[in-house]
Amino acid sequence: MASDVELAAELATSSGQLLQELRRGPLRGKELGKAGDEQSHELLVKALAEARPADAVLSEEGDDDLGRLDADRVWIVDPLDGTREYGQLDHADWAVHVALWQRGRGITDAAVAQPALDAVYTSSGTTAADPSGPLRIVVSASRPPEFASAVSDALGAELVPMGSAGAKAMAVVRGEADVYLHAGGQWEWDSAAPVGVAVAAGLHASRIDGSPLEYNQPKPYLPDLLICTPRHAEAVLSAVRTAIGG
């Protein structure tokens, strides 16, 4: 039987292959995104029911069964992160997220697939690069934090807009950026797998006030996120506090 991290990688890969095949079909834009969300969700939920029938599942595209709050193991999945970008064929900044939360341990196993890059990152065997040169901060292309410019000015950094939480987090893992900064709304499935991979790779991950990220909560809303190289964490947190008047 596959280990949990192997299963996460297999599922993220399989969903990515499905999404790539669907992208080669006639659908475009919102119709393509809707079909991708639905079909990837169905694949993941069915595969998890077969491979881990006793585990609970929290998916962006599924009904939230609050029985998960009593479960010791909960898979937190985003079948298609970056739906808007996925619907635009010239974009590679979309991803599939598969993470396992375990009671008392948090996110223990995770995989993020970036199918358009033919890449899968897992919480086993991934090591973050340590970039050099000017500081680069990736932010949401559609809704960057209101204070992002103030933070970048304070740090002498460049803001880099990008879609998909998974794509932004993996840009930090690869060393293409130093910081991923988000505020203004996210859900657990947006960050669980990216955080699982990033932390296992040696990166800092927290809320933007420095507090821990907590998963499998009654309301799975996590409005903000910081992922960065450890040596930049305190400077970024300090700049955020100053920018928001904390």
Explain the layout of strands and helices.
Elements: H1 4-23, H2 29-51, E1 56-59, E2 73-81, H3 83-86, E3 95-102, E4 106-114, E5 119-122, E6 136-140, H4 148-155, E7 158-162, H5 165-174, E8 179-182, H6 188-200, E9 204-206, E10 225-228, H7 233-243
Parallel strand pairs: 1-2, 6-7, 6-8
Antiparallel strand pairs: 2-3, 3-4, 4-5, 8-10, 9-10
Helix pairs in contact: 1-2, 4-7, 5-6
Give a structural overview:
There is one protein chain. The chain has 246 residues and is an alpha/beta fold. The chain folds into 2 domains: 4-122, 2-Layer Sandwich (Fructose-1,6-Bisphosphatase, Chain A, domain 1); 136-243, 3-Layer(aba) Sandwich (D-Maltodextrin-Binding Protein, domain 2). It has helices spanning 4-23, 29-51, 83-86, 148-155, 165-174, 188-200, 233-243, and strands at 56-59, 73-81, 95-102, 106-114, 119-122, 136-140, 158-162, 179-182, 204-206, 225-228. Helix 1 packs antiparallel against helix 2, helix 4 crosses helix 7 and helix 5 runs parallel beside helix 6. This is 3'(2'),5'-bisphosphate nucleotidase CysQ. It comes from Lentzea guizhouensis. GO terms for molecular function: 3'(2'),5'-bisphosphate nucleotidase activity; metal ion binding.
Quick structural summary:
With 246 residues, this protein is α/β, with parallel strands linked by helices. The protein is built from seven helices and ten strands.
